[in-house]
Write a structure and sequence with these properties.
Radius of gyration: 16 Å
Mean pLDDT: 94
Structural class: alpha/beta
Number of helices: 4
Helix content: 40-55%
Order of helices and strands: HEEHEHEEH
Shape: globular
Bound molecules: zinc ion
Strand order of the largest sheet: 2-1-3-4-5
Number of strands: 5
Oligomer: single chain
Largest sheet: 5 strands, mixed
Length: 165
């Protein structure tokens, strides 16, 4: 039998859940900003010590850059702000499951915790197709939480692609 969680541990978990909701709502606002700019509506924020250290949304069209996914934009900004390529005390919130490139960048930047909203059955590499974030053969593994506000994030993407069909 596992030990029951101490009141302190429960409090910490409750605080973390509240923070997760707050930061995913923040990432969703970034995703809506992407949509307004005609970009695929995905938003991401890197959080450090309760602050947004780096944030972004997809900019592949406006930047003519296939690597300008929301996570890449947020990770680059966070590393520049910190002056360190290792984001070891950070958490990344993103509205869509990371692709192979972004999951690779997450592993390289040593981010210990990822929270994503909607799964991506066609390109997701955090559990859907593969799980690069928790592969025992790699030198870094993340704590992954998924499904938070997944409905809002999915509807945003579905409406975006439906409007363009
Ligand atoms: Zn990506």
């Amino acid at each position: 039998m596992p030990e029951p969680a101490s009141p302190d541990a429960r409090l910490t978990a409750a605080a973390r859940d509240a923070d997760d909701g707050r930061w995913m709502a923040y990432a969703l606002r970034l995703a809506r900003l992407a949509e307004e700019r005609g970009e695929v509506p995905v938003g991401a924020v890197v959080v450090f010590e309760g602050q947004a250290l780096g944030e972004g949304h997809n900019r592949t069209i406006s930047d003519a850059d296939p690597t300008a996914h929301a996570e890449m934009v947020a990770i680059r900004a966070a590393a520049a702000a910190l002056g360190d390529w290792r984001l070891i005390d950070c958490a990344l919130y993103v509205t869509l499951e990371p692709c192979a490139m972004c999951a690779g960048a997450i592993v390289l930047s040593r981010i210990p915790r990822i929270v994503f909203a909607a799964p991506d059955p066609k390109a997701g590499m955090a559990g859907s197709l593969e799980n690069l974030l928790q592969d025992a053969r790699l030198n870094h593994r993340c704590d992954v939480t998924s499904g938070l506000m997944a409905e809002e994030a999915s509807v945003l993407l579905r409406d975006f692609f439906r409007a363009r069909r």
